């Protein structure tokens, strides 16, 4: 899903009880399995997803799956929902027996690309304040990564809703840590701000996928609004003119539409506009022109004015 979740990603999602993390995770998993986009993230290919629920009754899980399949417009063949009630004498996932049980299920469905575990407190045994339950799980987590099985672990906050409950060491070997915070709305019970607290795979080129986003489920439809709070930094006057050149290109029919409603410009079109504005001279000083254009691009990315991906650049609003 976008650039933040792949078959080698280890992701931890923390949120207060009742905020909507389960509904969101199911929606995410179903769209990943179907290869569809979700929120501002672009789907890539249909994948096999195993969703393990340790909290709800199998009846309620089934209802939530049916509801989300209706929202998605399909029931993806690659999405497998597993309730703890489906397995008699279900064993915790920080035990050899529990891990062996899941491995048997994974083998029976022909392998998976993503495992989603809901939630840490319900699927592991022991005191979540201590490091031991998670340390007992880490060898299995690492083995899943080696086999290119991405993972998303859902977790609760405690009385302090600004952080996940218990030991901080749980985040140490995660690539990404997401946090959901309440954003109340009168027209829905599912509304929150999603923030990337840790993003090991974020780069200037993939920044768009790691922006903060406000999410809500309204009238049975998922809505989102990017809310990245990072303030743009000041830039040199010459770099500001290069930004104007990019803005000019994006405002014309040379703009290229990317996922998430982004209007972008190809590097060659942006560079041509810089030449037109007298910022660089590609004929008299070709090497210097390339160096200066690259400098403009780096400075604008560092100042949080633009984002880039490959040959394309776009404005950050």
Radius of gyration: 22 Å
CATH superfamily of the largest domain: P-loop containing nucleotide triphosphate hydrolases
Helix count? 8
Secondary-structure arrangement, i.e. CATH architecture of the largest domain: 3-Layer(aba) Sandwich
> What is CATH's topology name of the largest domain?
Rossmann fold
Helix and strand composition category: alpha/beta
Determine the fraction of residues in helical runs and give it as a percent range. Answer: 25-40%
End-to-end Cα distance, whole Å, is 22 Å
* Number of domain modules: 2
Strand tally: 13
Largest sheet: 9 strands, mixed
CATH class of the largest domain: Alpha Beta
Give the low-confidence spans: none
The spatial strand order of the largest sheet comes to 3-2-4-5-1-6-7-8-9
Strand content: 15-25%
Write the layout of secondary structure elements.
Blueprint lengths: L9 E6 L5 H14 L14 E5 L4 H15 L6 E5 L12 H13 L5 E5 L1 H4 L8 H15 L3 E7 L19 E7 L8 E9 L13 E6 L2 E6 L10 H14 L5 E2 L5 E4 H10 L9 H17 L3 E4 L2 E4 L2
Helix pairs in contact: 1-2, 6-7, 6-8
Can you offer a commentary on this structure?
With 317 residues, the chain is an alpha/beta fold. The protein has two domains: 217 residues, 3-Layer(aba) Sandwich (Rossmann fold), CATH 3.40.50; 79 residues, Winged helix-like DNA-binding domain superfamily/Winged helix DNA-binding domain (Arc Repressor Mutant, subunit A, Orthogonal Bundle). Helices cover 32% and strands 22% of the residues. It contains eight helices and 13 strands. The strands form two sheets. A nine-stranded mixed β-sheet has the order 3-2-4-5-1-6-7-8-9, with helices on both faces. A four-stranded antiparallel β-sheet has the order 10-11-13-12. Helix 2 links the parallel strand 2 and strand 3. Helix 1 crosses helix 2 and helix 6 crosses helix 8. The longest helix is centred in the C-terminal third of the chain and has 17 residues. The model has no long low-confidence stretch (mean pLDDT 92).
């Amino acid at each position: 899903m976008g650039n933040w979740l792949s078959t080698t990603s280890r992701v931890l999602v923390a949120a207060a009880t009742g905020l909507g993390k389960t509904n969101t995770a199911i929606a995410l998993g179903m769209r990943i399995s179907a290869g569809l986009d979700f929120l501002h993230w672009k789907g890539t290919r249909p994948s096999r997803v195993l969703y393990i629920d340790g909290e709800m009754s199998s009846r309620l899980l089934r209802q939530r799956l049916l509801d989300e399949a209706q929202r998605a417009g399909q029931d993806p063949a690659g999405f497998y929902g597993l309730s703890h009630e489906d397995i008699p004498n279900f064993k915790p996932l920080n035990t050899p027996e529990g891990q062996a049980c899941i491995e048997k299920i994974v083998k029976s469905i022909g392998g998976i690309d993503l495992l989603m575990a809901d939630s840490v407190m319900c699927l592991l045994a022991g005191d979540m304040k201590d490091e031991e339950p998670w340390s007992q799980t880490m060898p299995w987590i690492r083995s899943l990564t080696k086999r290119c099985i991405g993972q998303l672990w859902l977790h609760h906050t405690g009385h302090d809703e600004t952080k996940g409950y218990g030991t901080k060491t749980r985040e140490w070997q995660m690539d990404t840590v997401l946090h959901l915070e309440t954003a109340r709305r009168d027209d829905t019970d599912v509304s929150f701000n999603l923030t990337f607290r840790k993003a090991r795979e974020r780069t200037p080129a993939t920044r768009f996928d790691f922006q903060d986003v406000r999410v809500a489920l309204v009238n049975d439809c998922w809505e989102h609004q990017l809310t990245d709070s990072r303030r743009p930094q000041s830039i040199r006057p010459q770099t500001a003119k290069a930004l104007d050149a990019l803005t000019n290109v994006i405002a014309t029919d040379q703009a290229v539409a990317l996922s998430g409603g982004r209007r972008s410009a190809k590097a060659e079109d942006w560079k041509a506009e810089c030449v037109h504005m007298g910022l660089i001279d590609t004929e008299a000083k070709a090497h210097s022109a390339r160096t200066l254009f690259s400098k403009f691009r780096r400075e604008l990315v560092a100042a949080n004015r633009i984002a880039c991906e490959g040959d394309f650049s776009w404005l950050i609003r």
